[in-house]
């Protein structure tokens, strides 16, 4: 008999009771080094905490189980995970296809850092799988995708992109931050690497910055682990512990995030002050069918356009009282922001520029009635 339901793994994978003390919860091993019984005689397999730490190892094993991968690796942030992966898989003159509306930090990593090291990159509208196929080159080493995207909630077809990547001997990398491991498991759909900003839903409480990679192929896992140790942007023991604690409730949190977001998307859809609601759970969303196929539910992020324009959108962000005006997402508390002036300000004037009348909400797990009432009063002009 195997006990491998998602909710069970979230609470138990990598988290046996501590053999020394019986502690039920994995302790915070706040230590940099480990005593040796004679030179090279490691007691528990650990020698130095950049290379390995038991609290981090528990988290790494847990996320690997949740994503059905062979190896998980935890980093100091989502961006540290991305940087480590890209320096593992891309050499100068290699080519990577990124989303037309990539996360701003990912776009900056390619355009301002990897570009200087000679890595070629190209932004493509990946909602059109054929456009991705057309962009493949002999030197393409990876297709990097995100689904749903930020802040426009576009959906890309993971199975189709995996097939295109593999035809060209490239890897498919999926940034799974918006869906979380609970709503979508890209490796089971053919992807090779999953990236997480664990700062968001995986941690889930807006109290820690962290990142992760999960890979399907053990040999690639070894190569990434080599770079993780060499570059050293590892997740610290306390951050790993906070993230593990957050992951235990991932499934129940996500169920509520999704239910509240669906309710809000429905309420906003008919509202006279709202022009367009971007939410993959709405049947009219262009990615709805693909999202339905590859996600368990449609997530906790909703974006909408305010009919009266940018000033009105800014006012909505100012007027909410349960939704807190802040960047980031994925925590239990609801957040609201204006992407054009906040998270996506750096895309102004570029092809990635977002509409000025756009508002993005990260729907938390408070009372749905309160959340709806708060948005309705903020939209009452
Ligand atoms: C936040 C985020 C990142 C970056 O993660 P950090 O933990 O902030 O470094 C990457 N991708 C997506 C989709 C994100 O939302």
UniProtKB/TrEMBL annotation:
Taxonomic path: Bacteria, Bacillati, Actinomycetota, Actinomycetes, Streptosporangiales
Family to which this protein belongs: Belongs to the trans-sulfuration enzymes family.
Catalytic class of the enzyme: transferase
PANTHER family attached to this UniProt entry: CYSTATHIONINE GAMMA-LYASE (PTHR11808:SF15), TRANS-SULFURATION ENZYME FAMILY MEMBER (PTHR11808)
EC annotation from Swiss-Prot or TrEMBL: 2.5.1.48
Cofactor(s) the record lists: pyridoxal 5'-phosphate
Alphabetic keyword roster: Pyridoxal phosphate
Protein name: Cystathionine gamma-synthase
Modification N6-(pyridoxal phosphate)lysine occurs at: 200
Record bears the keyword Translocase: no
Reactions it catalyzes: O-succinyl-L-homoserine + L-cysteine = L,L-cystathionine + succinate + H(+)
A GO molecular-function annotation: cystathionine gamma-lyase activity
Any one GO BP annotation for this protein: cysteine biosynthetic process via cystathionine
Record-level GO cellular component terms: cytoplasm
Pfam families: Cys_Met_Meta_PP
Domain of life: Bacteria
InterPro entries per record: Cys/Met-Metab_PyrdxlP-dep_enz, PyrdxlP-dep_Trfase, PyrdxlP-dep_Trfase_major, PyrdxlP-dep_Trfase_small
